[in-house]
Write a structure and sequence with these properties.
alpha+beta, GHMP_knse_ATP-bd_CS
């Protein structure tokens, strides 16, 4: 991260001909288990990772946010702070910032002032590691601290979630919540109904591997919203507010009242919530065998019931599963789906064999190489006045 900090700070000084006053950072995340359960009021078990978004900023004495995005080919945008801020026609990255700004401006009338900002990140875009949530939380926490808005980190996360809805993505709270509230050396189990956070220690003898299929997913306007609608339909049939409140006996009793697709979507969510709770116990106990069983079951459920995997991520999971062997195959697709990354939890001595297997086999399936990252569980959002 030092590299992106140095690059970002230097770019700020060159763009705005002055030194920055503020520094903000928020990480991306990887979800160990609990996919598409967050917007169903359920449980998820993510951790913050060592890749994220950096911002350097200075007040500019105007009513405008002026921002340079280094990772968007040095794209630049500016917009006035107002209770209503229109979306930009072509700059998707700026719309995340616009969405956060208009909500905070409406809630804290007159408190926000103009800022000059330079942004740089190292979360791979389109990899399912929450580059957008990292951006939203980094920016929201910047505004929160610079202008003394006194919002909690969870409120900043909720504002980021609403910014996603502003651009057309009805996502759950997981990505923003863990970016804001990550804890070093811990996954965090998030109750997405109550917003309770429970630290789950990651055993020191386990490594988290993130394998990017390099099949980019784009969830805005995609099948993601269709999956959410199916879940809402199932919840209505079952007479519950969220699928988190349903049980498998309830679902089986109502099977003849719903089509097969709706039934399978609901089955994934209900069983996935159970897996998250069991996986939390397995992590705390250092029980890799049980964690392996639960993570692979999660992948099968995403593949067969929720239908959000693709052949490349399925292939990666099978390559890693075979390389690790029985009782150690803690691997699954992670993220919203339709591409992106696979996550594996492995012993340090197995890391190289997994890398060797991927490098030897994946390109034959996909025509491209995978990118492999090692990470530990990291802290969430930070802010500093320089």
């Amino acid at each position: 991260m030092t590299d992106i900090k140095d690059i970002c700070k230097k770019a700020f000084e060159e763009k705005f001909n002055c030194a920055p006053e503020y520094y903000s950072y928020a990480p991306g995340r990887v979800n160990i288990i609990g996919e598409h359960t967050d917007y169903n009021g359920g449980f998820v078990l993510p951790c913050a990772i060592r890749y994220g978004t950096v911002m350097f900023a200075k007040q500019n004495g105007t009513d405008k946010i002026r921002v340079l995005a280094l990772d968007m080919n040095n794209d630049y945008d500016e917009f006035a702070i107002a209770p209503v801020i229109e979306k930009h026609d072509t700059k998707l990255w700026s719309n995340y910032l616009r969405g956060v700004t208009y909500q905070l401006a409406a809630k804290h009338e007159g408190k926000l002032k103009g800022l000059d900002i330079v942004i740089k990140g190292d979360v791979p875009a389109g990899a399912g590691l929450s580059s957008s949530a990292s951006l939203e939380v980094c920016f929201g926490n910047l505004l929160n601290n610079v202008f003394s808005l006194n919002e909690s980190l969870m409120n900043i996360a909720l504002i980021g979630q609403s910014a996603e809805a502003y651009i057309g993505m009805k996502c759950g709270i997981m990505d923003q919540a863990i970016s804001a509230n990550g804890v070093c050396d811990h996954a965090v189990r998030i109750d997405c109904k109550s917003y309770d956070l429970t630290k789950v220690s990651v055993p020191s003898d386990l490594v988290i591997l993130i394998i990017n299929s390099n099949i980019k997913h784009q969830l805005v306007g995609s099948e993601y919203n269709d999956r959410r609608e199916s879940c809402e339909k199932a919840a209505k049939i079952l007479g519950v507010e969220y699928l988190r409140d349903a049980t498998m006996p309830m679902l089986l009793a109502a099977k003849d009242k719903m089509d097969d697709v709706t039934f399978r979507r609901a089955r994934h969510v209900i069983t996935e919530d159970e897996r998250v709770l069991e996986a939390s116990k397995a992590f705390e106990a250092g029980d890799l065998a049980n964690l392996s069983k639960l993570m692979y079951q999660s992948h099968e459920s995403m593949r067969d019931d929720f239908e959000i995997t693709v052949k490349q991520t399925d292939a990666l999971v099978e390559i890693v599963k075979t390389a690790l062997g029985p009782g150690k195959e803690a691997v699954r697709q992670t993220g919203g789906g339709f591409g992106g990354c696979v996550v594996a939890v492995v012993k340090p001595e197995d890391v190289q064999s997994v890398k060797n297997a991927i490098n030897a086999q994946y390109k034959a399936v996909s025509g491209i190489d995978a990118t492999i990252f090692e990470t530990k569980a990291c802290d969430g959002a930070t802010f500093k006045k320089l």
